[in-house]
Write a structure and sequence with these properties.
The chain is of the alpha/beta class and 738 residues long. The chain has 23 helices and 12 strands. The strands form 2 sheets. Strands 1-2-4-3-5-6-7-12-9-10 form a 10-stranded mixed sheet, sandwiched between helices. Strands 8-11 form a two-stranded parallel ribbon. Helix 3 crosses helix 4, helix 8 crosses helix 23 and helix 11 crosses helix 12. It is globular and about 105 Å long. The relative contact order is 0.10.
């Protein structure tokens, strides 16, 4: 090889070595950057977890309302009653009965404000039993009052014992439990107590309180981001509910002596639903910054708290059944005490009830005798408000009913069998368990492209009335989207995201982009789409791209019954038919009813706690409305009954008012036949935001009244004064096609 050939090889190999060196240096830089990013992300995640679970963590085992009722501060409060919350709250109301921030903040129902005026209230509010008075100035001399009690559980379901001093600690709690166990054993063996007074649990105090007299008991199980601490917003919500019920009983008193003697007791079931001390963050950084940090920190704890709510469920249900048994005990003379019990659970509190009662409900359905009334599963009624619970916990019960009845006729199921099975539950069947969720839009399942063309028709095809009603509903929906829909974002979008179903989150991103661009969301309006401004379209491009990625992300959970919540699973619409048809769904499981407010012309005004004694609240008796609604639709076997369209009764008979909100059986004008019988006792309701809005918007007086009317009144009372309903103005049979 000559010198020229060696030089050529040298120049050829040198660039290759240079290129390889550059490639290796670039590759190592990428590896270093990726490693640094991974380390940084890991540190960030660990830092967030450390902050959430150590720095900002709430106490793991602490009772907030554990003072024995025999403590002087508590016994004096029970004897005299406390007006401090109403008295302190009237000052910030400044002479108006409106509530701050559209009703979401009630300045007249704030324990922290009362404690700021007098620090002794921090001790008094720790009492396990409290008597609150909204007003003591009434013509009859009887105060508008109620009793508030607490049932708190540790994360493993263990209850808390009461303490007999304001500085009680966990050691005192343990000592109290031991002394209580010892006293119980001594009583069982017949030996004297030797002067030892047993220290009781919160449950014992409640049972003793409810063991006499006529009681209306309202139980509230709180959800995510709440507990029983002083100043918690859900405790204030329960006080608002209890004061409302006391007012409703006061209204019934002149015509119903039983209402006069009935005492209201509200029971708050507390657990560690708040993993992060959000109140501490607000106190430290202010409402704006602290609230934002609290939202960010708490967001990661949803499914840390969900298993805890399920672990506590057996203990909570057993405690409530113990209270139920006390309420069922008759007077010494054998007469009934007219006690009633309604149990409500919100968010993860609804999940706790759905989990704890599922097996009992399934057993009740499987043992149900044809034509007999299904008895309540707990108390008189169980209400799940925006439950953060898998839809499967409800559809399992629906399937148990579905397996025992025939819903639609086919070549193997004659029509006579359908008619027979409508009596599986009798006409006097009351609801025993309901779920109500703030829905996103009308109609359930959305609009198809051909629906808008059909809605716009102006022909005589028998659907004119139904078409007009759909137009009116869509106009309301368009206005609702223009101003912002107050639906339950937490259970509609956030819950599926944590269950690895990103499709609802994709829809949320698309709605955000649509609102910014000034257009209506897809499938929710018949308003012709308008082109967005070029700048707006450019700014929303990342949102729309994320929406597409979320909706098409591979390997996400596709079983809707496991990723969607109870109230956000609508039965799929059949392929055939128009919106006014009633075609059977191939998967008849999910939502079954609709709930609408009666304030169509504007938002209902909220009522502050301190104003409830004199506020313009009307919640009259509503006996018999459900029977009348079913009778009005007797030509459809009661299906599609509507509480605003009732069979006539003798006008001279008093006490037959409609409920405070509109209950509708089936999903009207969606093209879907009802998936449950007219008399089915399990109602899974889609609520419009003029009845129930966003995740925590359950404070409207009409909503509180409507839920309690189901227990306060005999809604299935039958009367011979009911008359022929044919020809009565209302929803005509041509509006829907069975």
């Amino acid at each position: 090889m000559d010198s020229h050939q060696k030089a050529d090889q040298h120049f050829t190999a040198e660039p290759k070595r240079t290129w390889l060196a550059k490639f290796w240096r670039g590759y190592t830089r990428i590896l270093h950057a990726a490693f640094a990013t991974l380390v940084g992300a890991t540190i960030l995640v660990l830092g967030v977890l450390f902050v959430n679970y150590v720095v900002l963590s709430t106490p793991k085992a602490r009772a907030y309302r554990d003072l024995d009722p025999a403590v002087p501060e508590c016994s004096d409060g029970l004897a005299r009653g406390w007006t401090v919350l109403a008295d302190t709250g009237r000052r910030p109301l400044a002479g108006t009965d409106l509530v701050d921030d559209g009703g979401w903040i009630d300045a007249s129902n704030d324990e922290n404000a009362a404690a700021a005026s007098d620090p002794r209230w921090r001790t008094r509010f720790r009492c396990a039993l409290q008597r609150h008075i909204v007003t003591a100035e009434r013509p009859d001399g009887k105060p508008l009052d109620y009793t508030l009690g607490f049932l708190e559980f540790q994360e493993d379901g263990e209850p808390y014992a009461l303490v007999s001093r304001s500085g009680g600690s966990d050691v005192a709690n343990t000592s109290a439990m031991l002394r209580h166990a010892m006293e119980s054993q001594m009583r069982a063996s017949g030996r004297a107590a030797a002067g030892i007074r047993p220290v009781i649990t919160q449950l014992d105090a409640l049972k003793q309180h409810l063991s006499s007299g006529a009681n209306y008991v309202l139980v509230f199980v709180h959800g995510w981001r709440h507990d029983a601490r002083i100043g918690d917003g859900n405790v204030a919500d329960l006080r608002l509910y209890a004061a409302h019920v006391a007012r409703f009983l006061q209204q019934r008193c002149p015509t119903d002596p039983r209402a006069c003697e009935t005492k209201v007791t509200a029971i708050y079931v507390g657990w560690r639903g708040a993993r992060v001390d959000e109140q501490g963050l607000r106190d430290l950084f202010g409402d704006a910054i602290g609230g934002f940090l609290g939202d960010v920190s708490a967001a990661a704890t949803l499914f840390d708290r969900k298993p805890v709510s399920e672990a506590i469920a057996p203990a909570a249900i057993s405690a409530l059944r113990s209270i139920e048994s006390v309420l069922a005990t008759p007077r010494p003379d054998g007469s009934q005490r007219n006690n009633r019990l309604i149990v409500a659970g919100h968010s993860l509190g609804g999940n706790m009830l759905a989990t704890g009662l599922k097996d009992d409900v399934l057993k009740a359905v499987r043992r149900h005798a044809f034509g007999k009334t299904l008895p309540p599963v707990l108390g008189n009624l169980v209400v799940l408000i925006n439950p953060a619970s898998e839809a499967s916990k409800w559809t399992t019960v629906q399937r148990a009913v579905w397996e025992r009845i025939a819903l639609r006729a086919d070549e193997n199921t004659p029509a006579a069998e359908i008619v027979r099975d409508t009596g599986f539950f009798p006409p006097e069947q009351r609801p025993v368990m309901i779920s109500v969720t703030a829905a996103l839009a009308f109609p359930a399942g959305g609009l198809r492209p051909g629906d808008c063309a059909w809605i716009g028709l102006d022909i005589d095809d028998g659907y004119q009335a139904a078409r007009q009603r759909i137009r009116q509903r869509l106009a309301s929906t368009d206005a609702m989207f223009h101003s912002g829909v107050d639906y339950d974002w937490a259970t509609h979008d956030l819950f599926p995201t944590f269950k690895l179903d990103f499709r609802p989150a994709g829809g949320f991103l698309d709605r955000v982009a649509a609102r910014f661009e000034g257009r209506q969301p897809r499938g929710m309006t018949c308003t012709p789409p308008r082109a967005a401004a070029a700048l707006h379209a450019l700014l929303t491009l990342p949102l729309r791209a994320l929406a597409v990625i979320a909706e098409t992300f591979p390997f996400q959970v596709s079983l809707r019954e496991e990723s969607h919540t109870i109230g956000n699973l609508d039965p799929p619409r059949p392929a055939a038919g128009v919106l006014a048809d009633t075609q059977p769904s191939a998967a008849p499981f999910g939502t079954t009813h609709e709930l609408l407010g009666l304030h169509d012309t504007g938002r209902e005004r909220h009522h502050a706690y301190a104003t409830l004694a004199d506020a313009s609240i009307d919640c009259p008796r509503s006996d018999g409305w459900l029977t009348r609604a079913r009778m009005r639709k007797q030509d459809h076997h009661g299906q599609f009954w509507d509480s605003e369209d009732l069979a006539l009764v003798d006008p001279a008979r008093p006490g037959f008012a409609k409920p405070a909100a509109r209950f509708v059986h089936g999903l009207h004008l969606t093209g879907i036949a009802p998936i449950t019988l007219a008399n089915d006792p399990f109602w899974n309701m889609r609520a419009f935001d003029n009845a129930l809005s966003r995740h925590d918007g359950y404070r409207l007086s009409s909503f509180i009244c409507a839920m309690n009317q189901l227990v306060l009144d005999d809604i299935t009372e039958s009367t011979p004064q009911m008359i022929d309903t044919m020809g009565v103005p209302g929803v005509q049979s041509s509006d829907v096609r069975p």
